[in-house]
Each structure stands twice: as structure tokens, then as C-alpha cells.
Amino acid sequence: MSLALSAEEQAIAAGKDGAAMAMRIVAESARLLGAPRLIPIASTHIDGALYHGDSGTLFAERLVEGGARVAVRSTLNVGALDLMGCARIRLEEPARGMARRMMEAYRKLGCEQSWTCAPYQAGHRPALGSDVAWGESNAVVFCNSVLGARTNRYGDFLDIACAITGRAPDYGLHRLENRRARLVFDVSGLSPSFLASEIAWPVLGSLYGREVGNAVGVVTGVAKHPGEDALKAFGAAAASSGAVGLFHIAGATPEAPDANTILAGTTAETVIRVTSEMAAKARAGLSTAAASKTIDAVAIGSPHLSLAEFDALERLIAGRRLLVPIYACTGRHALSGLEQGGRRKALEASGVIIVADTCVVVTPIMPELSNGVLMTNSGKFAHYAPGNTGYSVLYASLADCVESAVLGKPRFTDIAA
Amino acid sequence: MNARAEILVPGKGGEGEALVLTAPISFWGGVDPKSGRIADVRHPQHGETISGRVLFLPGTIGSSSASAVLMELVHNGRAPAALVLHEPDAILLLGLIVAREMGWETPMAVQLERDIFETYRGSIAKIAEDGALTIAG
């Protein structure tokens, strides 16, 4: 089926301004994707303002020069700089100046200065069943799965083009028939104590992503709703180890009141029965430095920490002084809450380095070390840190991360799967 | 070998040494946007450069930043001479679509059955603006 544009869309595309350029980009993408039409969208979340090279900056500035403005609510994912001035970023000129110009261009296009990969915890929560165009893999999977809004994975350039046109190609996860589960990921064989532990969700997410790839599945055997931060960690890990855009959890996510509903009465094509051995192997697979005797840093906050996660961090540190720093990545939405009552100052006095607007795997922040070892409780950091920072990784719970930072060496509490 | 490939993104016809990849590649993290070298150490063609080559892609792994890497290669003058894909990858090709919008000279991208890729290995491949793909030497 070939793409049909409305008369209005054709007229916009025929222009010479920034809006015309955006419409042609959306239409060309729709043609390559095989979408029959464009559909209106309610909001966007834009990952394209992270500096990868000068061409991206020049593109955003061209849209600004062409008078383009976003037509729908648009939040921004992280940039390459900490505009709040919390952490020192080691990005050198001229890249630093180009990164700053890029962030400024997206502001001029009318995007909200959210600078977070957790926009859904910063007040941007589209309604169940609404069509949106979101970028950044963890934001996409949370938006689809936990909020039940409908988006595909919108990459650089297409995200802002959708924001300016207020339209997106009609294909993939915008269509109801592509949202039903085709496989079952059954965790009922795991111990209740493991499922209740903090590490269960990043570990299972990493395993899920590797097992299902880009298929839509439903997780069964979860007795109670694990909480929003757990689902955030599951989705982020799943979208880094596989191309997961949407998952369901029977009884917990909005499109899956139970497994049968989301399987739409059909039999699952595949049933993955997760064993404690599989979970233990997935947990071990998140570490690349298992034999290390020391650690150089701890990084948490991928996706960005919520205030509830900062509460837990404060409780675990309990006023102690850290021997190695904990890099705590978050958005400015959480920062304002932390400023109250001197919480940020107290954390920094303990040795926590707060990173706002960005994070340690997308821009150089941690010192360059040849054999650095990083401990993290994030499945996503565990996946990307070795390639992007050169540090090898130890995966552990938040409690173990904090104890290890106090001691300067790894400490693990056994949690049997 | 003469084949008529379907044009995915129009552009300038090109000629260059064929580089037939034997495994799918992720442009983001897999190709250095400054030099055009294949940087993924696990890729069988690791160390080869894609710049100026007619690049045959049996498959792509779709990072959402693949388009940014391809556009950066075009902007740096390090793009392939042409891209031949087994199936369209909208995210990757967006890099060419946006580069065209910027007014930069872009290589063309065409679609061809991957079974035919091997016949171009080791040759100088030439692609005309109508999608005709020939061996020039």
C-alpha cells in the first residue's frame, strides 16, 4: 500500500520553510516504512538533542532558521552537558560549543527543557490509547508498556520532524493488532524472595530482552504490582539487551488485566519458563569484572533517579562518608525536590556526585582510567558502560552498591533466584 | 553481472570497490562517524572502511542513532559511494533523507536481493542514477 498524504499535508510539504522540511522527512520515512497515511499525535519526547557530531547541530539550527516550532507538547531527553552545573563534564571544545548550540536550537524550537530520560516521572504522561512519537529506548518502552500510550521507537531527526508536523507514520505499535502478546515469559518458577528483591527487575529485563528480541510478550507469574521504579528498570534493561518496544505484565500493566486478554484468545507462539539458573546466569552476565578486588566508582540513575530512589539512597548511606564516589544521575525535576531541606548538600558531603540533565554513559564525566571498575544497580548502565566509558562493570543491588562505595571494594549479599 | 535495483533513496550515481558485509551491522557504535571504519570488534569486516565503497548490507541492527552516524559520514565526506540493502531500514536511510534536505550531496541507496551480493565481491561496482548496478572492473 502506498502512502497517501492529505491535501493539507501536501501543501505543507511543498513549502520552503522548516515546517516543509519536517513534513517531507516524516512523509519519506512513512514511505520507507510502508505506512499508508500519517496520523495526528498528542506529544513527543525527543532524543535527538544529544550531540553525536556537527551535522545534527546544523540540522536543528536549519529548522530554527526556517521558523519551525513544535506543534505538540515535546519534552527533551538528555543532552551532552549538565546545564544545572552539578557535575563537571569533560567534553572539550569545539564539541562542547556545538553540543551547547544543539541544546539551544531545540529550546528555540519550543521543546520543554526537561533534559531527562524519565520524562514519565517529570509530569509527561500521555493518556492510555493515545498516539505519541517518543524517542530513547527506555522512554519508548515505558510509554508503551506502563502508560499504554502508543509509539514506535522514533530516532534522531524523525522525532523532531514529528513534533513540528504533529504527525507520525501509521504503522507498527500505533496499530492495535501489533500490540497483542505473541509469547509468554513465565516467572512463576522463581522464588518469591527473589521476585521481591530490587535486583529481580533489571536482571529479568536483561534476560527478557535477550530472549524475545523485538517481539511483544507478556510476563506471567507476578503476584503483585512491582512498583513503577521496578518497571522502569525492567524496561530499560530489556530495551538495551533487545529491541523491545512494548511488554506486558499480566495484572500490572494497563493493556494486560490478565494473560488471556492480551494474547487476544490465541495460543502463545512461544512460552519461556524462566528457571532460577536462567536468572542467575542473566545476573552474572551483567558483570564484566567479576574477579575485581576493588572498585573505582558507583553509578546509578539509568533511567534517571526518582525522588523515591533518592530516599532509598539516603537511607542506605545513613550519613556515612563514601570511599569512592557514587555518580547519581537524575533530571532537574528531581533536583528541585532535593534542594529542599539541604538534601543535596548532605548527599554531596557524603561523596555523592549528582549529575543532572545528562548521564555518565553519554558524555565524558568519570575520570579516564585504563582498568577502571564501575559498580551499578542499573541493567542499562551495565550494558553500555564497558563500550562507552572503558570501565568494566560489576552489577549489584543498590544496598550493595552503597556498602561497596563506603568500603571501596565490592561487597555482595547473596539473593538466590 | 547486471542488475536493476529498486531505488530507496535517490542520489548521485557512484562507483567504488565493493564491500560485501557478511553479517548485519549497527551503524551506531559499529561504524566510526569520523573515519568510516568498521569499529565493532565482533564484526567480521572489522577494520575495513566503508568510505567510498559500494556497501552491500545483508542486514542492519537498528539503533535509533544509526541515521545520525550516516548523516555525519555524509557531512564529513566519508560516506559510502552507494548503499545496497537487502531490505529497507527507515532509521538508517533517514540519515540520507535529512542530508538531502540539508542540500548535501548524498549517495543513493537501493534494494537488492542479498543472494546476488556475492557476485560483486572483489569487483569495482558501478551504480547509475536509474538503479542499474554493473561491474566496472
TrEMBL record, chain B:
Q: Which InterPro entries match?
A: PMDh-S-like_dom
**Pfam families tied to this protein:** AcnX_swivel_put (PF01989)
Q: Where is the Phosphomevalonate dehydratase small subunit-like domain?
A: 25-105
Q: Does the keyword Lyase apply?
A: yes
Q: Which residues form a coiled coil?
A: none
Matching entries from Gene3D superfamilies are given as:
Phosphohistidine domain (3.50.30.10)
Q: Which UniProt keywords apply?
A: Lyase
Out of the domains of life, which is the source? Bacteria
Record's protein name: DUF126 domain-containing protein
